[in-house]
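Structure tokens please, single chain.
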Amino acid sequence: MESITTDEIRLQELQAFDETKAGVKGLVDQDFTNIGKDPNARQEIISKVREASEKWGFFQVVNHGIPLNVLQDMKEGVLRFHEQDTEVKKEMYSRDLTKPLVFTSNFDLYSPAPLNWGDTFAWNMASNATKPEDFPVVCRDIIPEYGRQVMKLGMELLELLSEALGLDPNHLKDMDCYKGNMLLCHYYPTCPEPELTMGTAGHCDPTILTMLLQDHIGGLQILHQDKWIDVQPIPEALVVNIGDVMQLITNDRFKSAEHRVLANNIAPRVSIACFFRADLRSQEKLYGPIKELLSDDNPPRYRETTFVDFVTYFNAKGLDGISALQHFKL
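Here you go.
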């Protein structure tokens, strides 16, 4: 019998994906509202989450329970914030991303990495110092409401991902994988020469997982088997991607996918990323490969680190195209 080459296996996988005619969205396209009621539906979703997390590191979720009007209001609120008078935004401008609310541009501005064509309004969701009146007037109501909704969905996803690993549903939650969450509201202005820059350069997120709401403009791409693939915008969908720290604690079982955002000369683009991550104020809690996933045949591939040390290293090197995980390998 002739052996099958790696290229042939890759071609078979690509053809199988192509024949679904469902795109990346189809990797996970189930009704999350029934996962607690129907055990069979839950197991089917867990299976799809597992497959997407192991092979792609990305999937889109629809029928997730967040009302469409909340998603739309959030995108419009972020657009209003970024397109308001510059003098108003200047009052919130800072390079200190530990503040509760910050307007900034290029978090890695002073790193060797190239600059990106975009600005960001960030909310540290874990901060107890944020009061309702602290939010910008133009999006004061919708940001906290969206934050509550996306947090609830994210907690369900942490349960599904735990079960996909063969662990107790509360395992990732018990690791405090959400106590340092951050909401990043990105704005990519229309670019006169998009071929000369990137909206955001290729990178993996320094998170457990990221939940992204994108508008209709498009431009998000993921790198899969050395090929950049468009993640087509779907009005009611949230894009979920596995972060570097999830790859670290699963000992490479779940893959952190590299992604980027193209600049465009059509219209401004808005996207909202919720970073699920541990509390950056905790200097003691260590994150390493989960012991229940290890064996003689699967020894730890990464050293333990605090979440703050991982993020500090990531931010210092910037989006330079080199995986931060390399720094933590044994």
